[in-house]
Amino acid sequence: MNSFKKLAIVFGLAIVATSCQNERERNYQYMPNMYESVGYEAYGEADFLPNKSEAMLPPANTINRGWLPYEIENSPEGKELSRLQSSPLDSMNVEANLAKGGQLYTIYCAICHGDKGDGQGTLVKREKILGVPSYADPVRNLTVGSTYYTIHYGLNSMGSYASQMNTEEMWQVSEYVMKLKQDLTK
């Protein structure tokens, strides 16, 4: 059979297949899930699961990767207690910690606190946020522990950044803030 006859047969079958089609419905669906999605309720009840829910709770006494429990509570007494806390980061990698802390500070903090920690970030200059103090302000009495506490729990109009950074990253930013404070007070 030559190629012309083969082509004519294929073309004829295509015409017959499309001519039998109902115009209101698709005759044949290659991948039906693309046209008619399967309903799925992410937090619906599932009788086959032990807790009857698809959104499973984590096992008791577990913590997320990269996180360590913060033993200081969110209270005025806890804030004062945090001032005495020192950084648990490796003192052999000070430069690496400061470099990583500087990158994270630029991403999360500089928009309000400024690149130098002087309280003159972009949002402050545009008067979107007011009252961001400088790290050099002696009244603030910043320490690496109180900075970590503030990043972890938030303070005044600054919210918590514990969901954006893990424990090590929050300590790196805290150490970088101490470097900025030292640079400002020179």
Automatic annotation (TrEMBL):
PROSITE patterns in the cross-refs: CYTC, PROKAR_LIPOPROTEIN
Keyword Metal-binding (UniProt): yes
Pfam families with a match to the protein in the record: Cytochrome_CBB3
Molecular-function annotations in GO: electron transfer activity; heme binding; metal ion binding
Superkingdom, taxonomy of origin: Bacteria
Domain Cytochrome c: 96-181
InterPro entries: Cyt_c-like_dom, Cyt_c-like_dom_sf
PANTHER family registered for this protein in UniProt: LIPOPROTEIN-RELATED, QUINOL:CYTOCHROME C OXIDOREDUCTASE MEMBRANE PROTEIN
Name by which UniProt lists this protein: Quinol:cytochrome c oxidoreductase monoheme cytochrome subunit
Organism: Maribacter stanieri
